[in-house]
Specification:
427 residues, alpha/beta, FAD/NAD(P)-binding domain, 7-stranded mixed β-sheet, 5-stranded parallel β-sheet, 25% helix, disordered C terminus
Length: 427
Amino acid sequence: MSARESRRPAGTVDVVVVGAGHSGLAMSFELARRGIGHVVLERGEVANSWRSERWDSLCLLTPNWMSRLPGFCYAGDDPDGYMTVKDVVAFVSTYARRTAAPVLCGYTVRRVEACGDGYRVVTDRGDWHCRALVAATGACNQALLPAAADGVPSQVRQLTAREYRNPEQLDAGGVLVVGASATGLQLAEEIYASGRPVTLAVGEHVRMPRTYRGRDIQWWMLAAGLLDQRIEEVDDPARARGVPSPQLIGTRERRTLDLNALMKQGVEVVGRLAGVRDGKAQFSGSLANACALADLKMKRLLAAIDRWADAKGIVAGPAEGFAPTVIGKPRLGLTLSSGEVRTILWATGFRPDFSWLALPVFDRKGRLRHSAGVVDAPGLYVLGLPFLRRRKSSFIHGAGDDVRELGAHLAAWLHRTTPARVSGIAV
C-alpha cells in the first residue's frame, strides 16, 4: 500500500512524527531501523509543501549528487544538475515508498497537549496518544512580513514568495521585490524577464559564486567541512540561524546570479526598505555598505577554501577573483501611489508554525525553545529548521546526521520511561 493510500484509524503508538517531508521521512527511517513503533501524520500528501507552496521555476540550490537521505540517494543521469520542484516531489515520494514509511495522509494536526506520560495529538480524523513526538513541519510555514507592509496603499497588490507561482499572476506594471536572498534575486530576474520593470530592495545578504575553481561552491562547502559546522561551535547561535540564504541559482549553465548580474540585465537596485510613510517607500542609504560587507565575507570564504585546498593538495583550477558589487547612487524613495509600482513581492523570509503545540515550550518572542532539536519538554523533538544541529540541517542531505543523533536521544528517552499500552493499531 502506498503512503498516499494509507488510511488507518487513530490509536496509541510510541512516536508520532508530524510532517511527511524529507525530514519527517528520514526520522521515520531511523525509528524503523531502531524498531520503534510510529506513524507519520501529514495534512496533505507526501512532500506537500513542495507540491503546493513553491513557485513554478524553483530549483534546489544544491546539485543533484548532494540529494540523499538515509538509505537513499540520487541515482539519475544528471548529477551536476539541480532538482526542479517536480523532481523534489518525485524524489521524496519515492523515498516514502521505498522505505514503506507508515504515512497517514490527510491528517491535519489541530493540537498537541500533554497527556499522562506522553502527548495527545488531536487531528481532524481522531486523536493519537504517543510517548514522544517529532515536529517535522519545516521552517517555511508562514511568510515573514515587515511592519512596513501595513502602510502600503490599497491599490498596490501585495504577494509573498510563498504565494507567488509565476509572473502571469502579476498585474501589468512595475514590481518592487523586497529581499535579496536567493529567493529575492531569482524572482526579481524572472519577473524582469517577463517584461515588467523591477526594483529590488536589498539589505543584508550573502554573496556566493555558483562555481569556484571549476567545482560547484557547494562541493567546496561540503568537502571543507563548512556545512558540518555544529551549532555549538558558533558564537551567536540565534544570529547564525537567521543568516539569509546565499545568492545562488540552480541552472544548467551553472551560472552565478548576484546583484551585478541583475543590474546588468536592467533590474534597479535600491537599499533596504526602511518603511512606508504617506504612500512612499523609503529605502536605507546604507546599500553600498551592505554590498561591501557581503563582498568582504565572500572573499574571506574563498580564501578559506584556498587555504584548505592547498593544505589537502586538492587538484582544482586556479584561485579566482570576482568583481566588487558596483553601486551608483540608488534612489532613497519611491512613491507607491504614482502607479510606477503595481505589485510588491515580499521575499523577506519565512518562519515555522508551531501554533498547534499547546505546550509551555515557547520563549517570550514566541520562538520554540530547543537545544539542537531537543525541545524543552520531555520526549519532544523538532527537525528541519535552519542550523538546527549543523549548518546543513535544513538541506535534504543534512537530515541524515540530525535524525541519527536525535533518534538516539529519542530511543534513550523511550527506554527510560514506562512503555505505553498499545491499542488501536500495530505499527
